[in-house]
């Protein structure tokens, strides 16, 4: 019965998220329900266990979230992200509209640009290209996610939060499990390319066409007059960030700081300096806002750990498949789905995984890579904040656009997770 109430509290969390209740209040309400049904003092536990869990996570990942957001803000306001995406798309031409957008999104996110910033970079280019190719604008969200929201987040060496968080908690490098990780990323990329190109061609055969909106026209006019940096200058801070993180082996925080400073220098000619403090303030707010939402869910995870049913639950999950690697992948996947957030799922699961699964002798580099990929499986269910934001920005809705998003960001990553775990068994790392 105690385990049932833990599960019901998770169901309540999912229900509240689906209903649009902000994640902090969803976590608070679900946490109080959990404590009451467990016969624990809600006032005592919320003011100690919950707050300590939230504050501990917030402090541990503060600079990673904020510096990552500030780096993304620089690439946005300087036009660097636009310059990189435009160059890639122009080089590939109109015959390869879908592949060029997917590649541009992948390059930007692997270079350290946040998935949210990447949306505002690619959207105007996608509108222009979809118009030229007469591709239905209902496919814009799926094509965007195909490049920016799939394989680059789990790739070894990626500065995205899904790859940095396991390293911070497990003590592993960003390049953990390099060979199997790259093979899995290639596997996922192939599936994404094949599906999204097939789905686009299918929509054309069904007679779907592009329809320009007034918002599209205004946005294209606004972007047309902006001066952009050259491709190499735009790419240089991203390369510096990747070298600092993966070659020099600097800490994630220091590598992001180096990337940010190099961006200030390289993009100096294109940065609107008179408004710089406003832009940096906005970037800080975006970073801390995202971090706080994740921390609120981690606080809920701390309450789950404090319940008497937790030890029994861990024992049950550990025995799934008889492998800590499989159990960890399932746990992160399910919790990311519950939270509607990959970082939220990692925030709850990884401390538990470290305490209970690592002592079993599981390969921590394999665990790092499985966790990074698993966090990108069910995180983009319909209640995911980024999914909702992208649909709103692109003037689409779930009915029109969600199915191909689901396939590219949920089904394909889950298939890749199975492939990755099979690779670890084949490499003797499971």
Shape summary: globular
Q: Characterize the largest beta sheet: strand count, sense, and whether it forms a barrel.
A: none
Instruction: Quickly count the helices.
Output: 19
The average pLDDT score comes to 86
| Proportion of residues in extended strands | under 5%
* Tally of structural domains: 1
Class from secondary-structure proportions:
mainly alpha
N- to C-terminal separation?
33 Å
Query: Into which percent range does the helicity of residues fall?
Result: over 70%
State the total count of DSSP E strands.
0
Q: Measured on Cα atoms, how large is the radius of gyration?
A: 21 Å
Q: What's the helix-strand series?
A: HHHHHHHHHHHHHHHHHHH
Low-confidence stretches: none
Protein architecture, described:
The protein is mainly alpha-helical and 430 residues long. The chain is 75% helix and 0% strand. The chain has one domain. It has 19 helices and no strands. It is globular.
SSE arrangement:
Layout: H1 2-18, H2 23-37, H3 42-77, H4 80-92, H5 97-110, H6 115-133, H7 140-148, H8 161-170, H9 178-205, H10 214-224, H11 231-246, H12 252-266, H13 276-306, H14 310-318, H15 324-339, H16 342-356, H17 364-374, H18 385-393, H19 398-426
Question: In summary, what is this structure?
Answer:
It is built from 19 helices and no strands. The chain has 430 residues and is mainly alpha-helical.
């Amino acid at each position: 019965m105690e385990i049932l109430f833990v599960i019901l509290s998770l169901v309540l969390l999912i229900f509240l998220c689906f209903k649009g209740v902000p994640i902090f209040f969803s976590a608070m309400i679900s946490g109080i329900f959990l404590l009451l049904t467990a016969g624990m003092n809600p006032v005592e536990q919320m003011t100690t266990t919950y707050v300590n869990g939230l504050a501990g996570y917030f402090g541990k990942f503060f600079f990673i979230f904020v510096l990552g957001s500030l780096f993304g803000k620089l690439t946005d306001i300087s036009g660097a992200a636009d310059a990189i995406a435009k160059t890639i798309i122009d080089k590939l031409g109109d015959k390869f509209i879908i592949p060029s957008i997917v590649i541009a999104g992948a390059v930007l996110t692997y270079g350290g640009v946040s998935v949210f910033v990447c949306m505002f970079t690619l959207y105007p280019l996608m509108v222009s290209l979809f118009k030229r190719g007469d591709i239905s604008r209902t496919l814009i969200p799926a094509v965007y996610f195909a490049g920016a929201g799939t394989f680059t987040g789990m790739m070894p060496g990626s500065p995205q939060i899904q790859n940095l968080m396991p390293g911070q908690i497990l003590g592993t490098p960003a390049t953990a499990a390099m060979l199997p990780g790259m093979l899995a990323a290639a596997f996922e990329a192939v599936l994404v390319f094949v599906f999204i190109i097939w789905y686009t061609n299918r929509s054309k055969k069904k007679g779907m066409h592009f329809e320009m909106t007034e918002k599209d026209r205004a946005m294209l006019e606004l972007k047309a007059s902006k001066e952009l940096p050259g491709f190499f200058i735009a790419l240089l801070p991203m390369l510096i960030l990747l070298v600092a993180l993966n070659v020099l082996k600097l800490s994630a925080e220091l590598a992001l700081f180096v990337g940010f400073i190099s961006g200030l220098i390289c993009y100096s000619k294109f940065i609107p300096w008179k408004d710089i403090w406003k832009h940096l303030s906005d970037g800080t707010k975006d970073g801390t806002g995202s971090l706080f939402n994740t921390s609120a869910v981690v606080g809920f995870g701390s309450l789950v750990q404090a319940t008497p049913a937790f030890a029994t639950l861990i024992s049950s999950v550990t025995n799934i498949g008889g492998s800590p690697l499989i159990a960890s992948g399932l746990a992160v996947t399910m919790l990311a789905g519950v939270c509607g957030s990959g970082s939220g799922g990692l925030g709850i699961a990884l401390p538990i995984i470290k305490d209970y699964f690592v002592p079993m002798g599981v390969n921590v580099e394999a665990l790092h890579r499985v966790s990074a990929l698993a966090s990108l499986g069910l995180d983009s269910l319909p209640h995911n904040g980024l999914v909702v934001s992208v649909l709103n920005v692109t003037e689409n809705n779930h009915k029109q656009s969600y199915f191909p998003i689901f396939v590219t960001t949920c089904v394909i990553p889950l298939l890749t997770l199975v492939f990755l775990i099979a690779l670890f068994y084949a490499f003797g790392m499971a």
